[in-house]
Amino acid sequence: MTAQHKGFTRRQFTELIGGGALALFAGAAMGCAPKDNAARNSNDKVSKTVDCDVLVVGGGGAGVTAAGKAAEAGANTVLIEKMPYLAGSSSLALGTFYGAGTQLQKAAGIDDSPESLLAYFLSRNGDKLDYDMQKFCAEHFGETIDWLTGELGVPFKDKVSIKGKDTVPRGHNCATSAFDALNAVTKFAHEKGVTFHFNMGAQELVMNGDEVAGVIAKDAQGTLVQYNAKQTIMASGGFCRNPDMIDQYMPDYSGVYTEVGMGLTGEGLRMGLDKGAAYVGHGGTNGILACPIDAGQSKLISAKVLWVDSNGQRFNNEGGQTHEIYYQVAHFPDQKFFAIYDQSQVDALPDKLKASLTRGISQGFAAKADTVEDACTAMGVNGDAAAATLAAYNAMAAAGVDTQFKKKADNLIPLTQAPFYVIQMGVCTHGSFGGYHVNTDFQVLDNDGKAIPRFYSAGEVCCGTFIYDDYPAGGCGLNWSYTSGRFAGANAAAAALA
Ligand SMILES: Cc1cc2nc3c(=O)[nH]c(=O)nc-3n(C[C@H](O)[C@H](O)[C@H](O)COP(=O)(O)OP(=O)(O)OC[C@H]3O[C@@H](n4cnc5c(N)ncnc54)[C@H](O)[C@@H]3O)c2cc1C
Fold first, then answer.
1. Is 62 in the pocket of ligand 1 (CB under 6 A)?
2. Which residue positions in the chain have pLDDT lower than 70?
3. Are 282 and 38 in contact (CB under 8 A)?
4. Closest among 217, 171, 271, 212 to 79, alpha carbons compared
5. pLDDT at residue 35, rounded to an integer
6. 64, 79 contact by CB (below 8 A)
7. 399: how many CB neighbours lie within 10 A of its CB?
8. How crowded is residue 2: how many other Cβ atoms within 10 Å of its Cβ?
9. Which residue has the least CA distance to atom 27 on ligand 1?
């Protein structure tokens, strides 16, 4: 499938920016990624060396936690980050952490256990991956949340929410955003004595025979620095901003736009694969439903209206779990769906969203017409089929029961007042589910399943070991990063100091 066939492509995004909408998009979340640092020219000379016990590459939740834990254990620890500040997805995330058996669950009267979480992970394709890692995550995710809320004092909401296809509330939500957690681990890392080097992008691994001995990195002026480390932890995040790697490892998502951190161009993974590390992944991504008119989780993606595919057919409960609908839409041939509003639903929108809709109409991402047929046809949707779907939907709404997809009655509202509006929607990636294969000590494995000496990994760059293709539940990405960071840091420090 080519980029042109997708619902919300880089091409469309470029057109959108050309249309003057750039200011609407958060700078860190959108726009052009910095180019993958080109492979080092063999004539380039290293001008400086830095020695340390533990080197961490990447300043997201995984890397900062790993560095803090390594320093806490007594290791002289340096963290290098290619951007001028901590700009990974961990700084942009909503802030849900998944886990079982936590103090917050107990306070909310939720009876839960790691055994029950393990059963859930296995039911979400975890049974196709290393059992030991599924068990490890089930046992330690709750502990990580307790560490954040307890020792680090990260503020979380009292309400623990249901996520994914789970029936037990396990979604622990930071009070404001994932920045609450990133701030806390950064403070922790500073207190433990981690040295941070910003604007320092790792370019290649330094090898000593089959052992990893550090990295060569480049600063913003192009100066090459060689970091010699007893242990190296790769925590460079995912690769959604590397179109070639998406084409190679996640071709179903080629051309889909992304909101991940600007630095996520994949070279931290590539440099290890080049040295014989094994790749594990099954083509999946983390993502959300998106509207090309607004960045992030646009409020135009309303559960109170009707959603159809380009054949004019309703395909899910509009109020269902967005990750589940994400995978459904991602597998539509065009990766698009369309929200049908009537005038009464538009009247109910706040002024800001009404302005967004007007802008969307002028940009061709929405259409308005006296009949739903005409509005749909203008958007390339089968208008006759959509009209029939709307008539059936309105009949269910009048009866107050969604016999098709069981949408809650509150969201089942007749859409009868002309004119009608049809808004294009699509999908947007929030992460890549593939990367280094690691064991439960977070050592990077080679293609024979042997640990590559002195080389660890944590976070999204190795999350293919834990997540198969679909996201088990919202909150697994962050908790994988912080949990793997905790253990990779402690284990690397123990090895460095042994
Ligand atoms: C908008 C958004 C919302 C999300 N919400 C949630 C949520 O609520 N819950 C959840 O569980 N997950 C969520 N996710 C996913 C989650 O944020 C990520 O899986 C997780 O933060 C990854 O953490 P990380 O530390 O591995 O990587 P990151 O936080 O992405 O950090 C990697 C860092 O490495 C740096 N880096 C890359 N290459 C190099 C190099 N060569 N040299 C030096 N540094 C390098 C990058 O610049 C970056 O700072 C969300 C993602 C997005 C984009």
1. yes
2. 1-43
3. no
4. 217
5. 41
6. yes
7. 11
8. 8
9. 237
CA 179 and chain centroid, separation: 14
The values of phi and psi at residue 413, to 5°, are: -120, 130
pLDDT at 5: 32
Ligand 1 neighbour 99 (Cβ under 6 A)? no
Tokens for 297, please give them: 């989780």
Pocket test for ligand 1, best of 96, 176, 478, 486 (most atoms within 8 A of CB): 478
* Beta carbons within 10 angstroms of residue 445's beta carbon: 21
* 258 close to ligand 1 (CB < 6 Angstrom): no
- The confidence score (pLDDT) of residue 24 equals 25
* Single-letter amino acid code for the residue at 473: A
Closest among 212, 290, 223, 301 to 258, alpha carbons compared: 290
In sequence order, the 6+-apart residues with CB closer than 8 A to the CB of 61 are 88, 90, 178, 181, 182, 185, 459, 478, 481, 482, 485
Q: Is the dihedral of CA 443, 237, 277, 48 positive or negative?
A: negative
CB contact at 8 A, 247 and 254: yes
Find the angle CA(414)-CA(317)-CA(422) to the nearest 5 degrees.
55
Ligand 1 neighbour 61 (Cβ under 6 A): yes
Cross-strand bridge partners of residue 227:
50, 215
Chain segment 281-334, per-residue pLDDT in tens: 999 999 999 999 987 788 999 999 999 999 999 999 999 988 889 989 998 999
The β-bridge partners of 290 are 426
Q: Are strands 77-80 and 46-57 parallel, antiparallel or unpaired?
A: parallel
Q: Indicate left, alpha or beta for 117 from its phi (over 0: left) and psi (-120 to 50: alpha).
A: alpha
Omega of the bond prior to 419 within 30 degrees of 0, cis?
yes
Query: Closest ligand 1 atom to the C-alpha of 458?
Result: 26
Instruction: Identify the CA nearest to 429 among candidates 331, 324, 230, 285.
Output: 285
Using most ligand atoms within 8 A of CB, pick from 81, 89, 427, 466 the residue to mutate for ligand 1: 89
CA distance 452 to 471: 28
Question: What pLDDT score does 333 carry?
Answer: 92
pLDDT of residue 200: 98
